[in-house]
From TrEMBL:
Domain SusD-like N-terminal: 40-231
Protein name per its UniProtKB record: RagB/SusD family nutrient uptake outer membrane protein
Source organism per UniProt: Parapedobacter deserti
Superkingdom: Bacteria
Domain RagB/SusD: from-to ranges: 351-442
Pfam families: SusD-like_3 (PF14322), SusD_RagB (PF07980)
UniProt keyword list: Cell outer membrane, Membrane, Signal
Subcellular location: Cell outer membrane
InterPro entries: SusD-like_N, SusD_RagB_dom, TPR-like_helical_dom_sf
Length: 477
């Protein structure tokens, strides 16, 4: 019987991030066999918490979250990050290897829950199905991020391009001969959509409390992630329909925050901050209860201290007069520890110096703009598309008036405004790079060869697979 290490103390998911802040470092006597872990509801929930923790580590670790902005005109950055912007990153780069490993660790934990819960569970079938459905959303999220980062042409409607290895069973190690080549983009996308569709009936609309509703998988977050996936696949009618599923839950479950500082609150004291109803899925980092824990969102050092990133003045100038996103969500950050960037500005979305801010993963503003874009692409200039645009824009530009259909000569004009609104609204949340690529644009206007709009496959993975896993074309010698 195989064994699995349980991570963290017993917990009831009161705080997914706080209660499980350990790595696989337990002594042998702390290990449990699979039947013990997945036979019990509480132990399975602990394993699920571990999967959420590892997804959090993957999403926010190393360059995974920030590359969506620092490789674009949104940010200026330290010279350390030049290699990711100009395509000179080597295939053996430690950062790239870390991103790959972190996501596959989360996927493997999800796979264990999906497979072994069905084998060993001795508790209510409905709860088993819910845990499996949550694990499938974790797996889907991880695979979508991997495709964005590594899939050759995945964002450019090239279904036959090579994506990533599609591991759907618990990984037993390369010594077993279980080496999986890269699946096509289409195959990986199909699995993501299946993971976000097939178990929908098993996901709740809400969990037992509001914190869990906004930090664990629900019907709403699954539909929203499906909308994002369809958008990246250039399946715009499907994206519009999936987004509509979410918007039907307004205002009962989801609603736009009226105040940006409720959405991204000042957090100098590092105390727990509410996840307001705009969040469909977020990592509740501020709910860490122990001041001594090492767990943080990995973003404050780069953003708050401006050691790595600061906002391009040209981007700041794009915000219209009176735009609250510029007035409230852009600030100086720390000016003591990095005097070289004393006068530069940074994002207020991560304003706690210890990295204890909550991290947005999916929020309603994105879903609204996804439906607006999808409608503009499929139906042209419509009243609904313009109304959706206004809902997001008007929150931050209260005195600017609203758009009408007469303001747009054609769908192209409307799309340009929607995409600019996405850029401003979702800035520093890791979207802009991928919005540019899926629209056939350089991540940054620097002439980067198209083959390097994705990261290289880590050389270690190629080597240990004996070449079964192959490199992206842009990084072949």
């Amino acid at each position: 019987m195989k064994k699995i290490s349980m991570i963290g103390p017993p917990l009831l998911l009161l705080s997914l991030l706080a209660a499980c802040d350990k790595q696989l470092d337990l002594t042998p006597e702390d290990t449990l066999v699979d039947s013990q872990v997945f036979g019990s509801e509480l132990a399975t929930e602990q394993a699920l918490a571990d999967a959420y923790i590892n997804l959090f580590r993957a999403v926010t670790g190393n360059i995974a979250y920030v590359i969506g902005d620092f490789t674009t005109e949104n940010l200026q950055h330290s010279v350390f990050y030049d290699v990711y912007e100009d395509g000179s990153v080597v295939t053996a780069d430690d950062g790239v290897q870390s991103v790959w490993q972190n996501y596959y660790r989360a996927i493997n934990l999800a796979n264990n829950i999906i497979v072994k819960t069905q084998q060993y569970a001795q508790y209510a079938a409905a709860k088993q199905a819910q845990f499996i459905a949550e694990a499938r959303l974790i797996r889907a999220y991880a695979y979508l991020d991997l495709l964005k980062l590594f899939g050759d042409g995945a964002l450019m409607d090239r279904p036959d391009g090579l994506g990533v290895p599609l591991q759907l069973m618990p990984f037993e190690g390369y010594d077993t001969g279980d080496i999986i080549p890269r699946s096509t983009n289409a195959q990986v996308y199909a699995q993501i959509i299946a993971d976000l569709t097939e178990p929908m009936a098993d996901l709740p609309d809400r969990h037992s409390n509001d914190l869990h509703t906004r930090s664990r998988a629900t019907k709403g977050s699954a539909a929203a992630l499906r909308a994002r996936t369809w958008l990246y696949m250039h399946r715009f009618e499907d994206a519009a329909a999936a987004a509509a599923e979410v918007l039907q839950s307004r205002p009962a479950i989801y609603q736009l925050a009226t105040n940006l500082l409720d959405l991204f609150p000042p957090n100098s004291d590092g105390q727990a901050k509410t996840l307001v109803p705009e969040y469909l899925f977020a990592f509740p980092v501020s709910h860490i209860t122990s001041p001594s824990t090492s767990l943080n969102n990995n973003l404050s050092n780069g953003y708050f201290f401006k050691r790595s990133f600061w906002i391009s003045p040209a981007f700041i100038s794009m915000f219209g007069s009176g735009d609250l996103r510029a007035q409230q969500l852009i600030f100086k950050g720390d000016s003591i520890y990095n005097p070289d960037q004393f006068g530069e500005r940074t994002t207020f979305k991560f304003n706690n110096s210890n990295g204890r801010d909550n991290v947005s993963v999916i929020r309603l503003a994105e879903v609204i703009l996804t439906r607006a874009e999808a409608l503009a692409r499929t139906k042209g200039v419509t009243g609904e598309a313009v109304s959706l645009l206004n809902q997001v824009r008007s929150r931050s530009m209260k005195d600017a008036g609203t758009y009408s259909v007469d303001d747009f000569e054609n769908p192209t004009a409307l799309l340009a405004v929607i995409l600019e609104e996405r850029r401003k609204e979702l800035a520093f949340e890791g979207f802009y790079r991928y919005d540019r690529i899926r629209n056939g644009q350089f991540p940054r206007d620097n002439g980067l060869p198209e083959g390097k709009w994705v990261l290289p496959i880590p050389q270690r993975e190629i080597d240990i697979s004996n070449g079964v896993i192959v490199q992206n074309p842009g990084y072949l010698n």
